[in-house]
Amino acid sequence: MTPARPGALPVVLLHALPLGSAMWRAQAEALRARGHTVLTPDQRGFGTVPLGTAPPSLDTVADDLAALLDAHGIREVALAGCSMGGYTAMAFLRRHPGRVRALALFATRAAADPPETAAERRRFADLMLDDTLRDQVVRRTTPSLLGSGTRDRRPDLVEEVLTMAKAAAPEAVAWAQRAIAARPDSTSVLRATDVPALVVTGAEDELVTAREAASTCDALPRGRLVTVPDAGHLQPLEAPDRVTGLLTALLDDAATAATADRTREDTC
């Protein structure tokens, strides 16, 4: 493993639901090769992380991340999240301000769910706990995480994502859906996040619209909106090289901004 480069900004990559940290494998490997410390934590209940007994809340997940960073002696990071990971990133911004120096939101909306969408998430959570219906629900809904072009071109990736979804603990998926359904609007949080930022949407995303992505980007003082063609909701898996390039450019922007800030401080 390439050792961390002195001064290189640590990176945190937060996974989508119902996948785990492995979805960021390509990006983590590439960024580590550039000398960044990269953390790809599993959310509670995923991988080997216990679900615990806390009621569903993304604030709890954000606090888990803060504790992880503290355990590694890391104060500030570049934070990237896909779908659920993006919602966790916004909860982290709200609960732990000043710890994010660059932000990337993939397949994520700043707005809270309207009541009907939140109710649908809670119904999905109930279905995940129903042993008689769970498998067919997972088989029916999981392919829609990928763009139509990806489904046509990459049946292997469809199977990989389906395998990851089936491996997720039903209790963890249900907990996460309820936590996402209860999240608040984060527009004001993003307006206060004056760091280099990226909002990425897939041209074939069937879950987050282009308008929602644009609204999320508009809330960020230094936001940049990028549409990835031929990709759906899981751009890090569908377009790994493009996503790695976007993250690399964002980290370069953060380094340039940090240098400029130090220069201003030195001249004051």
First and last CA, distance: 40 Å
Q: Which band does the percent of strand residues land in?
A: 5-15%
State the fourth-level CATH superfamily of the domain at 11-111 and 184-267.
Alpha/Beta hydrolase fold, catalytic domain
Contiguous uncertain segments of 5+ residues: none
Q: What does the radius of gyration come to?
A: 18 Å
Biggest sheet strand line-up: 2-1-3-4-5-6
Biggest beta sheet summary: 6 strands, parallel
Shape: globular
If classified by CATH, what would the architecture of the domain at 11-111 and 184-267 be? 3-Layer(aba) Sandwich
GO molecular function: hydrolase activity
Pfam families: Abhydrolase_1
Protein name: Alpha/beta hydrolase
Keywords: Hydrolase
Structure description:
This protein is an alpha/beta fold and 268 residues long. The protein has a domain at 11-111 and 184-267: Alpha/Beta hydrolase fold, catalytic domain (Rossmann fold), CATH 3.40.50.1820. It has twelve helices and six strands. The relative contact order is 0.17. This is Alpha/beta hydrolase. Residues 10-240 form the AB hydrolase-1 domain. It holds the Pfam family Abhydrolase_1. It comes from Streptomyces roseolus.
Notable traits:
single chain, 268 residues, alpha/beta, six-stranded parallel β-sheet, 6 strands
Short recap of the structure:
The chain has 268 residues and is α/β, with parallel strands linked by helices.
SSE arrangement:
Elements: E1 11-14, H1 25-33, E2 38-39, H2 58-71, E3 77-82, H3 84-95, E4 100-106, H4 115-128, H5 134-141, H6 148-153, H7 155-167, H8 170-181, H9 187-191, E5 197-202, H10 210-218, E6 223-228, H11 235-238, H12 240-267
Parallel strand pairs: 1-2, 1-3, 3-4, 4-5, 5-6
